[in-house]
Structures are given as C-alpha cells and as structure tokens.
Amino acid sequence: MIPAIFRVEERNEEFAGTVTLRIRGEAREVPTEFNPGQFNMLYAFGTGEIPISMSGSPADGNGYIHTIRSHGFVSRALADLRVGDAVGVRGPFGRGWPLDQAAGKEVLVIAGGLGMAPLRSLIYRLLSGTPEVSRLRVLYGARRPQEMLFLTELEYWSRRMELILSVDHAEGEWPGHIGVITGPLDKAEIDPDNTIAFLCGPEVMMRFCIQVLTAKALPESAIFLSMERNMKCATGHCGHCQWGPNFICKNGPVFCYEGIRRWFDIRAL
Amino acid sequence: MKTLPDLLHEHAFFKDMDEDHLAFIARCGENCIFNAGDHLARENAPANDFYVIRDGRVAVESYVPNHGSICLQTLQSGDIFGWSWLFPPYLWTFDGRALDEVHAVRLDGKCLREKCDADPKLGYALMKRFARIVTDRLHTTRVQLMDVYDQQKTSLDSGK
User: Which residues on adjacent β-strands are paired with residue A224?
Assistant: First the structure.
C-alpha cells in the first residue's frame, strides 16, 4: 500500500492535454510486470492519487508506460510532469483482459478515444502470439483524427492485423470512416461461435457497440469491457468504486458483460 | 457474369425481398463505376436516382462557403446513398463524392416511384427498407451529436 518512487524517463505529448509517460522505479529492482488491462495508482505528490491503466507492452520490463489525459486536478498534475520528476506508484491492481479465453478465436478489439490506452497492452500481447488467435481486428473510434492515440504505431501494426479507424469528424484527406464506430462494426462479419470482443471507451459508446454485437448474435459471455469508477484504495476496502456486488478495482476493471449486464443498464449506478 | 437482379439480391438492403419485386426493381437499374473524386450527386441538383454501393467508399458532404466541403459521413459497400428521389422537390440535399473507385447500381427513382404507385405492396416493401436506413442514419447523427469522446475521462481516472 506504500507507493514506490518512480521517475519520468520519457514524456510524449500525444495531442493537446494527453501525454504518455514512461516511468521507471528509482530502485531498479522494482518489478514492473503486469497483465494487459490492469492499472496502477499514480500519486502526484502534493495533489493526489488516481488509477491509470498501463498502455505499454507487458513484455517491456523497462518500467511502466501510462497514457494520461489532463482532466482533473490529479491527472493535470500527472500530465504536467517532466522528465526526471518523481511520481508515486502502487500496483499493478485489478483483473485484466481474459487472454486465456482468446486462444484460437477471432478477436475483436473495440476502442473509443482514450480507451485505446489499456487496449494497446492487449494488442502488444496478441501480436506477440501469446495466446495465438485466429484473427485480430481492431476498430478504433475517436472524435477527430488528431485525437487518435498511437496512430503511427497502429498503422504499422495494420500489416499484421485488420485495422478499422472511424472518427466523428474529419477534414481533408482522411482514409478512414467518418461517422460513428457502430457503423463499421455493423458491417463487420462476425462468427458468433468463435469470436471474443474486448471493449474500452466511453460507457455510452460501449453500450451502443454491445447492442450491435448482441444483434449479431455474439453471446454476452464473449463480450468483455473495461469499466471505470472513482477508485481510491484499489484493494476493495474503501468501497468508493463499488458497482452492484462488485468492486471495480478488485473484481474488475475488466468484466464479462454477461456477469455485469444487470448493473450496466442501471442509470447513475 | 452476374445479372442486375443477382447483384441486388446480394446487397444487404434487398435481403429477403420478394424475387418478383427484385426483378421488377432491377429493370429500373444500371451498373455504374465512379473514379475517386467523381460526384455521384450534387447538392440542389435534381435527385432522380439513388445508388446501391457494391464496392468503394462515398463521402456525404456539404459545401461551406469560404471553407470548402465538410464530410458528414462516409458510406461503403453494403450502404445505400440517396433518398431525395422519394420526396418533392426531388433535389439532392448533400453532395456525394467517390473517395476511391466506387462500383454501384444506379436505380432510377422516377421509374421506381411510378412502379410503387402502381403496386402498393412493392411500395410498402421498399418504404420499410428506406425507413430503416433513415432511422439508422438519424441514430448515427444523434450519437455524433452526443460527442461521446468528449465526455470520457482518462481511462480509470476519476479526474479528481
């Protein structure tokens, strides 16, 4: 429960207000293994602590990579960190993406906006071939092309996986789809018996995507999503992130839709 | 070589449509190919037909003075472009521009209107399909207006 001291080793501004930080433990022996979909509690000294997913490769072993959007006091303080600055780290916490269930299947990764960050770790893992999947498709929706994360890397990866990009608005020559992500998702051929879907993004976007997936007869047990609520302790004790019978920090943040369907549709829960 | 009824039969828009109706509709159609940059439709021009997109992408655009064209949506294989032929004054509401080579079936709206008037069963079958397209596009537009990506916080970040 005591934060380890890490220092910012690299800082990359993705677009205005959103940065990716590589942080490394001051004590070099601090282990940095994690499972895709897990998160760390990052402590901006003097400001506060928030949960942020890992967005780097789980095989990196060279510290952690986190992508942070400046939104509240703490995230702003974290996004303002410069190379060499200190940050407190507790973690990794939570249950990540169920990779064992993806083995041999067609994997559909559906990301919305900043939701690409925790999914990038998953893509790294799937591209490494563990587990081996029969097909990998990534659908990524964002507001504008300028607000897409890791675009160069995704385009590079598109040689090894199917990549479908969609933005709400675009000007000039934009090769992807313009509209909402449910458009290309609706056009995608899905084998309901052999497909598993991983979603992360704004809850409303995931809701609409789930409607499309279930209309295509994909079982609820084959849909997994990463949820977010206000987390404090990250160990299931404080109750801040209680959601129905679950604690997002401990039982999630990745849940199977079949298990959380009852809570997912309750407003203001 | 596939006939026009075959091509229409393969398209999602005409799925499960009565074979006689399909053959009837196909008689109002012709195959067409557009190169990238070609316009399928121009805003305020007479809308005498609509397009069943078989392959390629089409941008639905509106021209803004002193700015240029703004793309509102892209359509692709499996989509339909155009319903202005259904309602007076039968003028295109937006531009339609091919983004790459587009293969489509152009259906003569005037011919179809007359057939629908003469055969209300065909008219109802066709209108139900267009109503579905219109509601889908309305839904898409509403979601776009919600600007969902602006409402999100950093992943797992309470923002406090």
Answer: A198, A256
Domain hosting B84: range is 4-147
| 3-class DSSP assignment, residue A172 | coil
Provide the domain count of chain B: 1
Q: Do A51 and B158 touch (CB under 8 A)?
A: yes
B140/chain A closest Cα distance in angstroms: 6
Q: Which amino acid is at A142?
A: A
Tens-place pLDDT, residues A73-124:
999 999 999 999 999 999 899 999 999 999 999 999 999 999 999 999 999 9
Tell me if A18 sits within 8 A of B157, measured CB to CB: no
The two structure tokens encoding residue B82: 């155009």
Structural fold of domain A99-226: Rossmann fold (3.40.50)
Residue of B nearest to A204 (CA): B148
Stretches in chain B below the pLDDT threshold 50: 152-155, 158-160
- CA atoms of A212 and A252, how far apart (whole Å): 23
For A43, residues 6+ apart whose C-beta sits below 8 A from its C-beta are A3, A49, A87, A88, A89, A90
- Give dist(CA B136, CA B132) in Å, integer: 6
For position A184, what pLDDT does the model report?
A: 92
The interface predicted TM-score (ipTM) is: 0.80
Q: Chain B residues with CB inside 8 Å of A51's CB?
A: 156-158
CATH class given for the domain over A4-93: mainly beta
